[in-house]
Design a protein that fits this description.
Order of helices and strands: HHHEEHHHHHHEEHHH
Strand content: under 5%
Helix content: 25-40%
Strand order of the largest sheet: 1-2
Number of domains: 2
Shape: globular
Radius of gyration: 21 Å
Structural class: mainly alpha
C-alpha cells in the first residue's frame, strides 16, 4: 500500500510539474532591452497609435483629462466584465514603479511584474507584434503623464475563467506574433500593417472570435458583434469598406465619412488618437486596408 501511495504521489507531482511547465508565464529574457535608448517624443506617437487613452482614461474624458490614465472603464464579454486598471504614473495605484522591461512583458507576453498571466482583454495578442523600441519609448512617455491614486477595480469574472493559470494554455494555442496580411507589401502598406495589426490592435474589435475568445484570423477585420450591445463593429475589408484611400484618410483625420456622417461611440476616441499621428501614418493605414483579403 505504501508503494502504491508513493507511486501515486510521484505521478501527481510529475503531472503538476508538467502542467506548470505548459501553463507557466513566459516573460522576456532579462537582457531583452539591452542597448535600447528611450525617446519620450517617439513614445507619444506610440501612445496615440496604441489607443492607451481610449481604454484607460475616464469615460467621456476630454482634453488633458485623456492623459490621466486612472482606469475604471468596464468591458463586458461572454467571460465576464473586465475593468481597465490604473496605468497612471502613481507608484502605488498605477505603474509608476514599472520598468520598461515590465511594460514589455505586459504588452508582448501578457505577463505582470508579479509573474501572473494577464487576461487577453488587454490586447497583448496584438501588441505581441510591436517592436521593443516602441515599448521602451512608450514607457518613457508614460512616465511624463500625471499620477492618479484611484485604485484599480477587480475584474468580475466567475469560475473557471478566474483561474488565470489556464491562460497559459490559451496563449500556447492562440498567441501568435506573425503577421496576418503577408506577401509583398510596399513601404506604406508595411507601415500600415504595423499600425493596424500591432499598435492599433484593430482586429481586437473588428475580427470575429472563436469559442475561447481568440480572433479568427481567417476572417480578419470582417466585423464582429459588440459585446453587451445589439450592434456590430463594422467590416473593414474591401468587401464592405469601399471608400477610396483618400476617403479613409479623411475619416481617420476628421471623423467625417464621405457622406458627411460623423463618427460616434468608441471609434470617436480611436479617431482622436489617430489624429495625433503623422499624415503619412493615416495614409499607411488606408493603404494597408486595401490589401486585406475581402470577407463578406
Amino acid at each position: 500500500m505504501r508503494r502504491i501511495l508513493l507511486s501515486l504521489t510521484i505521478l501527481a507531482a510529475t503531472g503538476a510539474a508538467g502542467a506548470w511547465f505548459v501553463l507557466r508565464p513566459e516573460p522576456l529574457p532579462a537582457d531583452a532591452l539591452a542597448g535600447l535608448e528611450a525617446d519620450a517624443v517617439r513614445g507619444e506617437q506610440v501612445f496615440w497609435a496604441g489607443g492607451c487613452a481610449a481604454c484607460h482614461s475616464a469615460e467621456k474624458a476630454e482634453g488633458a483629462d485623456r492623459l490621466v490614465l486612472k482606469g475604471g472603464r468596464r468591458f463586458p464579454s461572454p467571460f465576464g466584465t473586465f475593468v481597465a486598471p490604473n496605468i497612471s504614473n502613481d507608484p502605488a495605484a498605477g505603474i509608476g514603479t514599472w520598468t520598461a522591461l515590465g511594460l514589455a512583458n505586459a504588452m508582448l507576453r501578457g505577463v505582470s511584474p508579479e509573474g501572473r498571466h494577464y487576461y487577453p482583454v488587454f490586447p497583448y495578442a496584438s501588441y505581441a507584434r510591436a517592436t521593443l523600441q516602441d515599448v521602451v519609448d512608450l514607457r518613457a512617455f508614460l512616465a511624463t503623464l500625471p499620477a492618479d491614486p484611484s485604485p484599480s477595480a477587480p475584474h468580475e469574472v466567475a469560475f473557471p475563467y478566474n483561474i488565470r493559470l489556464g491562460l497559459g494554455l490559451w496563449k500556447r494555442l492562440h498567441l501568435d506574433d506573425g503577421w496576418v496580411v503577408a506577401g509583398d507589401l510596399n513601404q506604406a502598406e508595411t507601415r500600415g500593417r504595423y499600425l493596424v495589426e500591432a499598435l492599433g490592435h484593430c482586429g481586437e474589435c473588428h475580427t470575429p472570435r472563436g469559442g475561447l475568445g481568440a480572433m479568427d484570423r481567417n476572417r480578419w477585420l470582417a466585423g464582429a458583434p459588440i459585446p453587451g450591445g445589439k450592434s456590430r463593429f463594422p467590416n473593414l475589408t474591401p468587401a464592405k469598406l469601399t471608400w477610396s484611400e483618400a476617403d479613409i484618410v479623411a475619416f481617420l483625420t476628421t471623423g467625417f465619412t464621405p457622406d458627411y456622417d460623423s463618427v460616434g461611440g468608441a471609434m470617436a476616441e480611436v479617431v482622436d488618437g489617430l489624429s495625433h499621428l503623422a499624415p503619412s501614418d493615416r495614409a499607411a493605414i488606408a493603404a494597408y486596408l486595401k490589401r486585406v483579403v475581402p470577407a463578406e
